[in-house]
Amino acid sequence: MSGSALLKQTIHDLVIANRILANEGVVDVFGHISVRHPERADRYLLARSRAPLLVEAADIMEYDLDSNPIDPRGRVMYFERFIHGEVFKARPDVMSVCHNHAYPLLPFSVSGNSIRPIAVPSVSLGREIPIWDIRDDFPDDGELMVTNNESGRSLQQALGKGSACLMRGHGTVVATLDLKNTVFTSIALKVNAELLMNAHMLRLSTGRGNIKYLTDKEIDTQVKTLQLSVGLNRSWEYYAMRSGMTTSINDDRPSKASKPAKSAKSAKAASAAKSSKAGKTARPAARKSARPVKAKKKPA
Ligand SMILES: [Zn+2]
Fold it and tell me: Which domain holds residue 70?
């Protein structure tokens, strides 16, 4: 890969996105997030086969839209990279794709109970979230994973023009117009599934009430506010710090913490010291270290 400033910035943002998704429990050992190449629309960037919590800049690989690696150098690749290639190929508007196996989503993918937004943070999910069943197009394969362009194309067709699609017994794909949006929508989808499950259980246990989903009008109105750059940047900074990475919403130039942050306070200290640490490779964020921050710090 060439080393333009824009490309380096994009790769660094992609590393932050990996760390955020891992820290928020959207991905674990499995799951991945990609971004379209900032200078070549016919390529995308995705880490080598590695748990997202551990991804560093040197792990980021470049692919064409058939998901062939440009410069593999012997690196092991994700089996399911074809999800990304087929979405980027069919959707010129999409700049970032996430595939994950977040467990709260799985009951909805197999039970016939659809996921619909029920709260403000979930409006970016869109009005309808389809469920793709690989068995419909490939009934005799016994395969659940998307390991080639053919099944990737089938999944893409189920996603359509939407921003999220469940995969029966497997996980989900999220595709939006930029990296930050894909990160936040992926988090929102998981949170909405948890809230919706709680609402179902509450209703069943009490025998009272009906779940009030957001209306189409509410979704369309709120999404315009939530997707303003001021909100996206504020959220990006917050989630990045929780994951041990630092990024400034004022100068928009993220920098890496030289060591895993033990708390938001220490992450800020790392940010203050970034001028003396610039250029060093960030170490993986520790989930354990981020938890105290999560427990005591609530966004205003
Ligand atoms: Zn998968």
Answer: 5-227
